[in-house]
Amino acid sequence: MVEKVYVTYNEVHKLCQASADQILNEFKPNLMIAIGGGGYVPARILRSFLKRPSAPNIPIQAIGLSLYEQLPSAKPSDPVETPGTKVTRTQWLDLSSLEMTNLVGKNILIVDEVDDTRTTLEYAVRELQKDVETAAQSLGSDEKTQFSIFVLHAFHRSALSWIVVTHDPHH
Fold first, then answer.
1. Per-residue model confidence as pLDDT tens digits over 92-122
2. Catalytic, out of 78, 94, 112, 116
3. This prediction's pTM
4. Which of 12, 16, 57, 84 is deepest in the core (most CB within 10 A)?
């Protein structure tokens, strides 16, 4: 049985805040890419802490990747999700709304809430690197693009817990 681990919104907020200075000072991201759906909230919170005086907010783009499969459970109201074996791309980048046409030469922070199998993160990085390589070849550019990953919670594949973010500290 999968154990649910409850964390409050305030705890997520504090985790993002605690990491922000190091990310800003050592990596200096130009763009955040949130892996949906779990990466949206931490990316938005993190952006508040990555704000530099007299600089614009770091833009957030979203990619939709699905790895989890819903399995039948004893109670239909409480379905169990388990990691699948194949990543499905449901949404990809749309840079047309930004003042950038590609990812070449950028520092890109990929944000997700959980890393339990590494499958989704590996897929995201591999596909983003392909996009960068294609754009760099087209531009004849050798500028280096860097990726960094921010994950709220990482645990080994055999862990039997599931993170549930709640506004209620009593669940």
1. 999 988 988 999 999 999 999 877 778 888 9
2. 116
3. 0.80
4. 16
